[in-house]
Structure prediction request, 333 residues.
Amino acid sequence: MTDEERLARAVAPLLEWFSANKRDLPWRKCRTPYSALVAEFMLQQTRVEAVKARYVAFLRQFPTAEALAAADEDEVFKCWEGLGYYTRARNLHRAAKRIACEGFPATWVGVKSLPGVGDYTAGAVCSIALGLKEPAVDGNVLRILTRLLADPSNIDDLAVKRRFRAMLAAVYPENCADFCEGLMELGALVCVPNGAPTCGACPWVTLCKAHEEGKETAFPVRLPKRERRVVDATVLVLSCGDKFALEKRKKGLLSGLFGFPFFEGEMDPAQFGKVMDCRRAKHVFTHVEWHMTGYLVEASEMSCDYLWKTAAEIEASCAIPSAFNAFKQWIEK
Ligand code: ADE
Prediction:
């Protein structure tokens, strides 16, 4: 059997399985192109469980592209708090401004041209919300397809993604929303990474070449990951009266967001005032790890290098990225 034939035979069992087994997720309830775009942005780098509540709250606050377009950026960041990777929030906000002016794009190229939308998100939004036969291929879809076909290609090779996109496009059914989400769902619920695919529950169990060969966990094949760069940093939680110092980060990671005063390398916190407490924390981004030493300092004056806010003001209107979580406890009392 050729790969194309095997894939063509996989469509109907997947649709049937999806209709019986799909999870009841909030973004599957009442869908507009805009709400699908919001869900796909949130799901780009965040797990389904963590997205659920944030998605509902976000759509309650910004139910339409027009409502989001009219918001101010800090308000959008605040509503994004906890999801991390804030560049997504900034891009979604910019996309909403375009959509509010020009309407929602009607083609893959149009969707892909929105800020922050890559091939995968464009495919997902087109398939799920616009009824277009445009596959969305991410790591989960690559995993289930390389297993189905016992394909030894290195999935970090971009040409492999392109080839799978073309193969899927050739077998895309009319019900493209369910097919697209069915592929995602199979990867999330059954054909899971690492040791434990539950092949007994899989609609492809009699079709899967890796299973036939007893080698389901030999796929996907990938190159070893590159290591992350480690950045040592000093973080200051400066208090003065009932206020705390924040800065609007100017460049690099988390730029445009609020954070505690941050210095690369080691520095002496005593120059700012009396050191009350100290703790270390690590935060892991995609390509960088921050190894931070944080100090709680009673500042001798309110330096005008910083914004000074009370804990209540911070809670109400400043999204502090979770990279600083270890130090937030100092302002929460
Ligand atoms: N991951 C990315 N998009 C998704 C969706 N629509 N449903 C479930 N998981 C997803």
Q: What stands out?
A: Residues 25, 39-40, 43, 48, 124, 181, 184 surround adenine (CB under 6 Å). The chain is about 45% helix and 15% strand. The longest strand covers residues 229-240.
